[in-house]
Amino acid sequence: MLKEGRGGMAQTGSLEKKTGSERAAGGALRGLARRLRDLGVSRAKALHAALGLYLTVALGLSMLALWAFAGLADEVLEGDTETFDRAVLTWIHAHGTGWLDTSAMEVTALGSFVVLAVIGLMVSVLLWHLEKERYVALIWIAVTGSLVLNQTLKAVFQRARPDVFEWLVDVGYLSFPSGHAMNSMVFYTVVSYSIGHVVGPGRARTAVYTFGAILIGVIGWTRMYLGVHYPSDVIAGFMVGFAWATICAVLTEAWGKRVENGSAKG
Asked: Are 76 and 256 in contact (CB under 8 A)?
């Protein structure tokens, strides 16, 4: 009986010791979780303070856009989008009119290199006069990078343009992603962002952003209406363009903050 009692006491002590160890381990894990949570919150707050709410959200969305582009590109390479692409173009062409033909050819020019360069120069002069050199740099870095990136992606994917119906404008051979869609997304996004900072918060900024978004969407639609791009080309151009424009804006703001902090310390 004594042996059994001692054995029971030893077993109880072992269980208590084990329970204490488990509690200590659990406490350590909870402490680690709290530290990781606090670190994540502090990093998020720091990012928000450095970039602001809109750029922080846009940066997250740009990462999603790149992920979605990778998935779409894979579908295009495998030919999984062809049925959808052709069906959409066939529907658009069936609803075409002479007035829409003329309008589409006029509006699509707003996404051409020449027009973007002219508008970019005018906006740059205005921003420079207002001592907003940071945004002048943003516009030209973003647009130049977009042109190079688009041509690189087209050379990589080597997708031929649609042959659903006769094109209404003369274009090159490669199609994916759409240059007009991508360059328009980049240019009008950074221009709207820059002008929005000039006019400040309020209805004027909202109007600028809304107008820019509508213009980008209409230009993308004209590329499909004219028969020179599949819907997947346009969507891909929008995805990469948005991601690139956001990255350029984030880097420009980070550079601007660094310059301002350096000036304040000096």
From this structure: no
Contact 153, 77 (CB under 8 A): no
Amino acid letter, 125: V
Q: Which residues contact 230 (CB under 8 A, 6 or more apart)?
A: 81, 85, 86, 88, 89, 162, 175, 176, 224
Q: Are residues 58 and 18 in the same domain?
A: no
pLDDT tens-place string over residues 180-225 = 999 999 999 999 999 998 998 889 999 999 999 999 999 999 999 9
Q: What's the predicted TM-score (pTM) here?
A: 0.78
Of 13, 32, 51, the domain-final residue? 51
Nearest-Å Rg of the Cα atoms of the chain is 28
Locate all alpha helices (DSSP H) within the chain, ordered by sequence.
Answer: 2-51, 53-78, 82-94, 98-108, 113-129, 133-157, 179-199, 203-225, 231-265
